[in-house]
Specification:
- It contains seven helices and two strands.
- By secondary structure, it is mainly α.
- The chain has one domain (5-194).
Length: 196
């Protein structure tokens, strides 16, 4: 159960290579619901923690449409714009509530059914988030290196049988603390600038 720094860096590297659907990989043809959910399972299925988890379901899509963060299908088909929005929603809902997602998307995309009044074109939003995620993973090696040294320092007096478990536990605590801090900052910004 020993967590070597090289193992951790390999996990980070694997995550950075697998996570994203490049815009060129999003179909330019409209898809029916079944095709849409299959596409998401195929492209994002590796993100599921358990086999029973769902990336996207018909119920989710219908709920997003009812909430106004996804436009209705046309003739029961979903366009590339639908798919981009659904990918963004998927990533955002890992951290933000659906209400927060609606709150930040509404003034940017205005009338969600058309791209003419988008403050920022949807494809630009999507490509920007992919670029930011890539840069974050690149920086992650250096940032985590310092934290890894801190963990080693904090556990140096432990016996070898307890040290491995303690180090792994501290790595998880650091990740949770970082995620919590970033989530809370995002929520504060939404509350201050989007809910006023």
């Amino acid at each position: 159960m020993k967590l070597e720094k090289s193992d951790l860096m390999k996990i980070i590297n694997d995550m950075s290579l697998l996570d994203d659907i490049e815009i060129s990989k999003i179909p330019d043809i409209d898809l029916y619901m079944e095709q849409l959910t299959s596409f998401f399972d195929d492209k994002l299925g590796h993100l599921k923690r358990g086999s029973e988890d769902k990336i996207l379901t018909k119920t989710m899509i219908n709920n997003y449409t009812k909430l106004g963060i996804l436009m209705p299908s046309k003739n029961k088909k979903y366009s590339k714009r639908h798919m981009i929005l659904l990918i963004l929603i998927y990533y955002l809902k890992q951290i933000l509530s659906i209400n927060d997602i609606h709150t930040i998307m509404a003034p940017i995309l205005n009338n969600i059914s058309t791209e003419e009044d988008d403050l920022i074109p949807l494809e630009d939003i999507y490509s920007t988030i992919l670029e930011i995620k890539k840069k974050e993973f690149e920086k992650y090696y250096d940032v985590f290196d310092d934290k890894y040294k801190l963990i080693k320092e904090k556990t140096k007096t432990l016996s070898s049988e307890n040290k491995d478990l303690a180090e792994l536990f501290l790595v998880i605590l650091i990740l949770v603390a970082q995620a919590d801090a970033q989530k809370r900052l995002a929520e504060k910004l939404i509350d201050k600038y989007f809910n006023s």
